Amino acid sequence: MAGGRRLPGGGADPGRGGPTIRRIVLGSRLRRLRVRRGIGLDAAAQAIRASVPKMSRLERGQGGCKERDIADLLTLYAVTDLREREAYLALARGANTPGWWQQYGDLTPRWLETYLGLEEAATLIRGYQSHRVPDLLQTPAYAAALARLTYPDDSASAVARRVDLLERRQQTLARSDPPRCWQLIDEGALRRSVGGPAVMREQIRHLLRLHSPEFPEIALHVVPLHTSVATALAGSVTLLRFAEPDLPDIAYLEQLTGALYLDDPDDVERHRLAVDRLAAPVTEHTSTDAFLRQVLHAT
Description:
Blueprint: H1 19-37, H2 41-47, H3 52-59, H4 67-76, H5 82-95, H6 110-121, E1 122-129, H7 140-150, H8 156-170, E2 180-186, H9 187-191, H10 197-210, E3 218-223, E4 237-242, E5 250-254, E6 259-262, H11 265-285, H12 288-298
Parallel strand pairs: 1-2, 2-3
Antiparallel strand pairs: 1-4, 4-5, 5-6
Helix pairs in contact: 1-5, 2-3, 4-5, 7-8, 10-12
């Protein structure tokens, strides 16, 4: 793969950014302009012939935006420099460009599409998985078995496309500038058989390879079942950090039919501290390689 390493499974470098990030950055910058000019949300909404809730969604980066509306807002906010205006309008055009994941639109709900864009742009992906191997670290066989369990009515071709989507996401870690990926996996997720013993053995060997000097940006630790502090977290959580200053840290909590995106600093900090408390005894006293080999021997 040009410019980066090839992870098991192959695939092309998906790049970074995408419409999700451009929408959020554009909305954040527009809000900053509005506040700086002392203009209320209702006046801004009126300028683009929209409701206040729609204007609020625009500033939060939720949904598409019309280039004409952005131009009208820039006029309202007294942005007259042509190069500055063009920079905002270019962001607006990019925000309306379909992301690469649109080709999987029949399989991906809207709430997941948002995460795909955030994941692609993150410089740090840090999380705790209580029930399964983290998505970015799954083998194709494990991912297929998990898909069949999660979507029992899927056809074989749909399962294959879900695996294709996951492998496309995994190439984020094979870029020349990959994000740091720091993952805590509950021991129960490794002991729980997904796809049978052969699939699990392959998956654990894959984790052993990723937890090696070949992939210095990946840090992997196993949370033993006897670690009681794990009960402080209600479930899995992923923390995302970005290089773009207009993007706040985000705590992502996925559920069966939806997800929560927390960007309030207090909420994010609470989840970060919970993950820190869980990680402290694990990273100090547990050898990941030894633990994984012990599980592999028992599988």
